[in-house]
Amino acid sequence: MRKLPPVGTRLHGDELWAALRADQTAPDELCAKLSERIPSEKVYLFGSGRAALAALLTATSRLDSRKRVIVPAYTCWSVPAAIVRAGLIVVPAEITPGTLDYDLERLARMDWKDVLAVVSPNLFGLPGDLTRLQGLAEAHDALMIDDAAQALGASLRGYPVGGYGLAGILSFGRGKNITALGGGAALVRDESIQKAMDETADEFRGEPAPPGILAAMKGLAMGAALSPSVYGLASSMPGVVVGRTVYEPQFSTAAMGNARAALASRVLERLDAINQRRGQLAEVLDRFLEQSKAIVLPKARSGAVPAWLRRPLLVIDVSLRDELLEALQTAGIGATAMYPQPVHKIPGIEGDLDLRGAPFDGAERVAESLIALPLVEGMTKQDLETITRTIAKMLGRKRMSKWA
Ligand SMILES: Cc1ncc(COP(=O)(O)O)c(C=O)c1O
Q1: For the chain, what is the domain count?
Q2: Most exposed residue of 49, 70, 145, 392, measured as fewest CB within 10 angstroms of its CB?
Q3: Ligand 1 pocket, Cβ-based, cut-off 6 angstroms
Q4: How far is the CA of 248 from the centre of ligand 1 (A)?
Q5: Does some domain include residue 231?
Q6: What is the mean pLDDT, run by run of 10 residues, along the chain of 404 residues?
Q7: What are the backbone angles phi and psi of residue 167, rounded to the nearest 5°?
Q8: How many angstroms does the Cα of residue 221 sit away from the middle of ligand 1?
Q9: Residue 181 belongs to a domain with what CATH number?
Q10: Residue with CA nearest ligand 1 atom 8
């Protein structure tokens, strides 16, 4: 049966072959292209976005003795893992389900004592209120790290996501806006952080790039020679666990390597086209989803241009979420529930948490009600109909009050 993957970028055979022939100029070329898109004084490449974040936080903590880092209470588990890897304490802050952004009123009232940094949300490619977050960070002399791991190509008020605050991070992981079968970048816009990063970065990219990467590229390139293009999902690659969220502060810190840098450079040329296509699919889905009273549809704030990666929706009657998810999956749609728990409930994180921002009702609600719909290349009108029919069948006749 036809199965639609949850996420992924199709890699073209010529891109993969170019990556396999890459030389040592590839990383510099990628850094130059990235700082052209997102103005930065210096770009550092890593084997993953989490390594980029851990390096930035470690470098900053060598300039400043504060130990707390604020993160959205619902976010990718790699974010708190990187904070713990840097020897710092995770401070979850409440989010608003309808925007998936921080609850900025509460964040403004929170105690910022000992806060070294705050990480922006931008999940699913949806920009948070980055201007306001930057204002709060500046008011408390904390470093804002603009996390564009899921939002490369998005913008707010004409300025690129990843470019707010004094630092940003990107990811080229397999489920991101563009993929290089792994990799990440830290973007720095501050002289003292840059100096500290120059001394710290290599501690987070010391291991050689996994040997499986080149083999996977070769395999994918061969696959691409047979069919016009292949998804960069590479589920058999080392370190890749498909469909499972793992919390692992002791993640490996391999270098990005020439091949992945060259692949990212080539696919970056298609970023806007890829984002535009996903945006069009989201628009079609939204026309249907907006009519349903049984779901909440997180929306872009005014002035924001999202880089939709998947289309998140929140099922108001949470008791129906898992059933709907299963129905979509049975129908061949790679819908997912994303992160199984909010940050404060991640198994194993207890000793590294500061719960001053509790309670987290909004984040808990999102974790139990969210479904992320795929927006992948190759999705047909029939796939869109399957999605809308499945949702209408399960939720159509339900009348519910809104909680978000
Ligand atoms: C919001 C967010 N930040 C950071 C990361 C870390 O990126 P990576 O998977 O490349 O380590 C991810 C993805 O895992 C993410 O979704």
Answers
A1: 1
A2: 392
A3: 48-50, 75-76, 78-79, 123, 147, 149-150, 171, 173, 184
A4: 12
A5: yes
A6: 80 91 96 98 98 98 98 98 98 98 98 98 98 98 98 98 98 93 96 98 89 80 63 43 76 94 96 96 95 94 97 96 96 94 98 98 98 92 94 73 46
A7: -150, 155
A8: 25
A9: 3.40.640.10
A10: 49
The residue whose CA is least distant from atom 3 of ligand 1 is: 149
Ligand 1 centroid from CA 120, angstroms: 12
Going from the Cα of 228 to the center of ligand 1, the distance in angstroms, rounded, reads 29
Q: Atom 16 in ligand 1: which residue has the minimum CA distance?
A: 76
Atom from ligand 1 closest to the CA of residue 51: 11
Å from CA of 402 to ligand 1 middle: 31
Domain assignment present for residue 264? The answer is: yes
Treating both helix axes as pointing N-terminal to C-terminal, what angle do 212-226 and 257-268 enclose, rounded to 10 degrees? 40
Atom of ligand 1 lying closest to residue 50 CA: 11
Torsion sign, CA atoms 49, 51, 57, 62: negative
| pLDDT value, residue 398 | 52
CA distances (Å), origin 94, targets 91, 105, 110, 290, 295? 10, 10, 10, 25, 21
pLDDT of residue 256: 94
pLDDT at residue 4, as a whole number: 80
In a domain, 223, yes or no: yes
Distances (CA, A) of 153 to 6, 189, 271, 304: 20, 18, 7, 11
184-188 and 167-171: which strand pairing? antiparallel
By most ligand atoms within 8 Å of CB, the mutation choice from 50, 178, 240, 343 for ligand 1 is 50
Domain assignment present for residue 401? The answer is no
Q: Which long-range contacts (CB under 8 A, 24 or more apart) does 263-266 make?
A: 263/11, 263/15, 263/16, 263/18, 263/19, 263/22, 263/180, 263/181, 263/217, 264/30, 264/172, 264/178, 264/180, 264/183, 265/26, 265/29, 265/30, 265/33, 266/14, 266/15, 266/18, 266/19
Range of the domain at 237: 1-396
149 Cα–ligand 1 center, Å = 5
Which structure tokens are listed for 78?
Answer: 């790699």
